[in-house]
Design goal:
about 140 residues, mainly alpha, 7 helices, elongated
């Protein structure tokens, strides 16, 4: 009987440790991604490049500009840190790496559709609306 109790206690401790690693790991990854985004997007050249990219892609521009008409009062997140954390928890590491590789190499219109579809499939409509609001605020305010 003692070994069953010890096994149960060990399983509870291991489960708690795994939960803590998951919880704090996503927090850590999200904070690192936000820091990297801040470094990359604070330059005027980067913002101008993003604006040119949006101007050349009507679908992407429409997606982002929908954030202007949405109220952020009932949305699940309102800051870029929260948005990154949500995206990091919804997409797996492989998907994030694939998206990053696609964006670094330049994205065609077809690839934009694939990326938007992938994000739309992974996020709920409220999360998608919140993401639009956060992106719009970051780019236009």
């Amino acid at each position: 009987m003692k070994w069953i109790r010890r096994l149960t206690i060990a399983a509870i401790i291991i489960g708690g440790l795994l939960y803590a690693i998951y919880h704090f790991g996503t927090e850590y990854i999200a904070s690192k991604v936000v820091e990297e985004m801040d470094v990359q997007l604070t330059s005027i050249e980067a913002r101008e490049e993003i604006q040119r990219y949006l101007d050349n892609s009507p679908e992407l521009k429409q997606f982002v500009e929908e954030g202007a008409s949405l109220s952020d009062e009932s949305l699940p997140f309102t800051t870029k840190e929260e948005a990154v954390k949500k995206v990091v928890t919804k997409l797996n590491v492989t998907e994030i790496q694939e998206i990053q590789a696609m964006v670094e190499n330049g994205v065609s219109t077809e690839e934009q559709q694939i990326l938007l579809k992938k994000v739309e499939d992974k996020l709920s409509s409220d999360e998608l609306d919140a993401l639009k609001v956060v992106i719009y605020k970051e780019l236009y305010q």
